[in-house]
Every structure is written in structure tokens, then in C-alpha cells.
Predict the structure.
Amino acid sequence: MNPNEPIAIEAEPYPFEFVPATCALLIIDMQRDFLEPGGFGEMLGNDISQLRRTIEPNKILLAVWRKNGLQVLHTREGHRPDLGCLPPAKKIRGRSPTTIGDPGPMGRILVRGEAGHDIIPELYPAFGEAVIDKPGKGAFYATDLHAILMNRGIRQIIVTGVTTEVCVNTTVREANDRGYDCLVPEDCVGSYFPDMHEAGLKMIKEQGGIFGWVSQSKHILAALT
Ligand code: TIU
């Protein structure tokens, strides 16, 4: 594989052509509080198995991506310990008795520095991989992600992680508006709600790929190995 040569892979609504050297793998919010038994997500009554099925495919994709010397970035959703970046509306929305910033099963919920806020060990960032701490659902809002991608010459992004219709979808839309091509491998993204997962993917690839492309990790792996 020559990282400077374009590769085309099977995708919907049509093949995705990318140049590996200028394409980043962006792994969204694979955090303990969303994915682990006993975390905030499960405490709210969500089915974490729908998210946990993405761990293995992400692990394989990440290993192959790293082996090829390609760019990797990770995000975490969370807030300053003083909650200065937590909008009051976000704090109260959901009407749960326990909300963001409160003590939870793995420390204060979605607060930076707490155990539950960190990335699961299976996909832990390696030295040199940027970790973007974001206060919103999208990875571009109030972060330096766009600057980092531009400084590194990145034009295309493979977006994986959780959840399909919330943080993955919002990030793909933000990236699309900034001129990036996005590919979402469907086995590497997940939602607590299978119907929302399907809808989230459909929204990306409909209308001729209005926000990007949808594929499967096996097609990316086949192109890289
Ligand atoms: N990362 C992310 O998607 N955060 C969420 O709050 N997701 C939900 O589905 N709630």
C-alpha cells in the first residue's frame, strides 16, 4: 500500500476514494461511562451490548490503521470539573435524578479526569494520537479539531464510535460543512437503539451521500492489507 495513492473501496451510495496519508481515523467517545457495565449509559437503562459490539471491529481497524502509520484521533465527551462549559439546558435535559456532573458509578458523570469519562482500555489512545475533549455532541464545536486536521493536511475522515445518531452523526455533519469527506463503517458505530442506528446511517448516505459514505470495516481492511 502506497499511502499517497488513492484507493477506492465499496461503500454506499457509491465507492469511497481516499488517500490514506491524508485520511484520519477519528474514534468518537468510546468512553467507559457509555460502554462499560455499571456506567452512566447502563445506569440510565440503556442496552450497552449495542455499543459493545463495536469494540472488536474498532480494535482491529485501529491496529491496522496504526500499523500502516496513518493518523488517529480520539474524542471524549465531557466537561470541566467546575462545569463551566456545561450548558444548563444540557444539565437538566433527560430529567434523570442523576445528571452530568453528579457523582455516578465511575466518578462524576462526564467530567474530565474522572474514571468513567476516560476511553475504554481496549481502544486506549497511543502516544502521539490527539485526544479531543469536547463539550458538545459534535467534535468540532468548541475544540481545536479543525485546526489539528488542517495542520496535518487531513482532507478525509473515517468516523467510528458512539453513538451513531448522536455524536457520530453530529460530527459527520460538522465535518461535511467544513469540506471533509467522511466515511462511516457501520460495524464500527453503534447506538443504544437499533432503529436510531439504522436511521442515523441512512441520513448520512441518502440523497447521493448528502453527508458522506457508509461502508464496512472489512472493505477498509482489505484495502490496507
Ligand atoms: N457520544 C454520544 O453520542 N453521547 C451521547 O450522549 N449519546 C447518546 O446517545 N445519548
Q: What stands out?
A: The two ends are 7 Å apart (CA to CA). The pocket of tricarbonodiimidic diamide is lined by residues 29, 77, 162-163, 166-167 (CB under 6 Å). Residues 92 and 101 are 11 Å apart (CA to CA). The mean pLDDT is 97.
